Amino acid sequence: MAPVATEVYDVSLLPKEPISINGKGLDTKAPVQVGVHPVGDRDGHQAMAERVLAVIKTILLTKLPGAHDKWDEGAPTFIATIQKFIEKGEVVKMCLPAFPWKSANKVEKVLGVLPDKAEEVALARLNGICESIGQFYLPGAELLIISDGLVYNDLLTVSDRQTWAYGEALRDMAVEKGFKHIQFSRLRDLVHLPHLPEVLDEVTYVANATNFRRALMNQFGDPNFDATREIAEKEDTRMTYQGYSRNLGHDLRFIFSRSESRSGKQYKRDVKYLSKQMIIRGDAFARATKKYCPDHLRLSIHQSTGQHKVSVSLLPTDGMYTTPWHCCVAILTDGSIISKPKIEFEFDPRFDLIYENGRPSYFREKEGNDMDQEELDEELE
User: What backbone phi and psi angles, to 5 degrees, belong to 5?
Assistant: First the structure.
């Protein structure tokens, strides 16, 4: 039985030219500047904003069983945010705190420390959303990715150098692949730290990494923030905490390994402690992001009710592996994509590991594969 996938990965199929609206339908030959309506045309602005949000909604994160769906409560706020750009005829701006570094678990989850095909698929997906918006709203849309790598990396024993290398390679990938609707920002852009060079290199970045984290907490941390209470009382925070705990439980199992001095129960307590520390830092980072991007539409990779933020899936999957730094991708023979931890592909005889630029990048389903599930189970025994 072939693996189940949900989307065909072929960026070349994305339209290259904007499509405009002339009031009678789509017209690719007579572009009209949509979004710059008469000042009093609020109905037109709102309709356009709703259409923009409908495009973004196509990549919403699938909600976990039992989670409340409050999208209908949040949508009016999201539409109002988008509408402000449309009323001025401006580019619709979105921001997404994400793309920190590759998982610390290189044994089971990811192929290395640098971006690979999984990140390429994710960036193509996000850039494609912006291109789709540009087909009917000529000012278009852009997405600002704010790397949160330095916010948390020390908690997961990911080095500052690896965080830098991942971010630089991601930027190079966006340029190389022509993802022109995506921009990048770092923690240094959100906090005030005097006497920094205008452009950071690896050495100045690493030398100031601890200072950036300290500045974040000093400038945006809330001394009255109670992580335990927030987790108990706010569903969005609770789902984020549960996601952190689940990922950290896998990420750190070969680093803080269980032993005579660290039982399974102690390991779980350690994971919960680190997850709460991430919640505390995440609250400060959210405040900094809000100040830095006060008017942007806020996207998120975390589960939420949909009332306060737009939670999106970076990979074309309905499964649990929706972020490229926690898994690998495989391209099936029909061109569609699936995502799983590295180890699951490595032990599946239907897939080959593919290298790009001398590094392992993704898995590819073998041509002519007709192995059914029973045969696969026998092969894996």
Answer: -130, 165
Pick from 99, 80, 91, 113: which is nearest to 152 by CA?
Answer: 99
What's the rounded Cα separation, in Å, for the pair 362 and 351? 10
Q: How far apart are CA 291 and CA 285, in angstroms?
A: 10
List Cβ neighbours of 42 (8 Å cut-off, separation of 6 or more). 87
Residue 1 lies in a domain: no
Write down the pLDDT at residue 319. 82
Domain assignment present for residue 164? The answer is yes
Q: What is the domain range of residue 73?
A: 11-380
> How many structural domains does the chain have?
1
Per-residue exposure over 231-270, b if at least 16 CB sit within 10 Å of its own CB, e if not: beeeebbbbbbebbbebbbbbbbeebeeeeeeeeeebeee
The residue type at 208: N
Q: Is residue 158 part of a domain?
A: yes
Supply the pLDDT for residue 365. Answer: 98
Answer yes or no: is pLDDT of 12 > 70: no
DSSP 3: P
Give the contacts of 333 (CB within 8 A, at least 6 positions apart).
365, 366, 367, 369
- Is 246 part of any domain? yes
Q: How is residue 11 annotated by DSSP?
A: G
Mean pLDDT of 106-114: 97
pTM over 0.90: no
Note the helical H segments in 221-263: 227-233, 235-251
In this prediction, residue 23 carries a pLDDT of: 29
